[in-house]
């Protein structure tokens, strides 16, 4: 569905993506993680055809995004980290923009707005940042595009709205849709994403499905200091050492996204190596 091969991208002389290759398949929600400035937004903009590769190939649904063909644009929606909504009503916004998305569904749109408790009658200039964000998310989901790119979608959402977001998103994914979410709020993605992709220095550092992660790794409290010393990653807490370790106990490991992310950033080679071993857990 999305096939990126040897992508190089730079802003003038600033190299951001270098020889990046990755695939994103339909039917999955991907969590895109990485430090500030790692290149996550830049990669998403290349997928959306909003930035053009310097070298390499980006194929999205069989289209070259940089050509920005209408048949491609109606199948992709990107919610950027920073956005501006025009000075109009929600009704007018829908009338003006839904026309570009043939699969837009007004009933779905109203249902999402109601789940997020955003009144349809609201005028955009009077809405808060969080309300505007929820409106944009509702509109994006109601467009029913095959590809949905979300850059920090939960920024600005209150606690209840974040769980609504998880609930709504889990309900829209199907075997034809591919959803990419870039975020630093990893807790917001827990129990939602199917795969984690970590970008660092413009390249893919880690890319595994959640079932494969829990088959090979376990995130838990260390039983003793020896175990903490031997772990792939250990962190001292008031409860003792929490660790990311290889899963040798024959059942599905526990996943702590934040801890796993730290383990990957701390020693990617060692974490990736754990996936080359035969897992104790077999399905
Ligand atoms: N328009 C631009 N012109 C020049 N450099 C840019 C531009 N946009 C981004 N950059 C630089 O490109 C690099 C990657 O930025 P990008 O926004 O893709 O990172 P990111 O992983 O999404 O970061 P964050 O998590 O902070 O949103 C950064 O060093 C940034 O300063």
Automatic annotation (TrEMBL):
Any one GO MF annotation of this record: ATP hydrolysis activity
Residues of the ABC transporter domain: 2-226
PROSITE patterns membership: ABC_TRANSPORTER_2 (PS50893)
Top-rank taxon: Bacteria
Classification via InterPro entries: AAA+_ATPase, ABC_transporter-like_ATP-bd, ABC_Transporter_VariousFunc, P-loop_NTPase
Pfam families xref list: ABC_tran (PF00005)
Keywords: ATP-binding, Nucleotide-binding, Transport
UniProt entry tagged with the keyword Acetylation: no
Protein name listed in UniProt: ABC transporter ATP-binding protein
Organism for this UniProt entry: Deminuibacter soli
Lineage of source species: Bacteria, Pseudomonadati, Bacteroidota, Chitinophagia, Chitinophagales
């Amino acid at each position: 569905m999305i096939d990126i091969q040897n992508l190089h991208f730079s802003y003038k002389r600033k190299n951001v993506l270098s020889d990046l290759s990755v695939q994103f398949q339909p039917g999955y929600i991907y969590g895109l993680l990485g430090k500030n400035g790692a290149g996550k937004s830049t990669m998403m903009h290349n997928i959306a055809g909003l930035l053009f590769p310097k070298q390499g190939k980006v194929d999205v649904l069989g289209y070259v995004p940089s050509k920005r063909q209408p048949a491609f644009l109606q199948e992709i929606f990107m919610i950027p980290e920073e956005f501006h909504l025009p000075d109009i009503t929600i009704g007018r916004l829908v009338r003006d923009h839904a026309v570009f998305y043939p699969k837009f569904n007004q009933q779905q749109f109203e249902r999402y707005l109601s789940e997020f408790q955003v009144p349809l009658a609201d005028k955009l200039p009077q809405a808060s940042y969080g309300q505007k964000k929820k409106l944009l998310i509702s509109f994006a989901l109601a467009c029913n595009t095959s590809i949905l790119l979300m850059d920090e979608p939960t920024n600005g959402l209150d606690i209840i709205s974040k769980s609504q977001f998880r609930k709504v998103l889990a309900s829209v994914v199907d075997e034809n849709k591919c959803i990419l979410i870039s975020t630093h709020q990893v807790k917001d993605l827990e129990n939602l994403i199917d795969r984690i992709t970590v970008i660092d220095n413009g390249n893919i550092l880690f890319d595994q499905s959640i079932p494969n992660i829990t088959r090979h790794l376990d995130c838990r409290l260390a039983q003793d200091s020896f175990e903490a010393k031997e772990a792939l990653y250990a962190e001292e807490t008031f409860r003792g050492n929490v660790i990311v370790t290889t899963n040798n106990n024959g059942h599905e490991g526990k996943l702590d996204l934040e801890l796993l992310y730290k383990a990957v950033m701390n020693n990617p080679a060692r974490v990736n190596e754990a996936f080359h071993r035969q897992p104790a857990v077999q399905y």
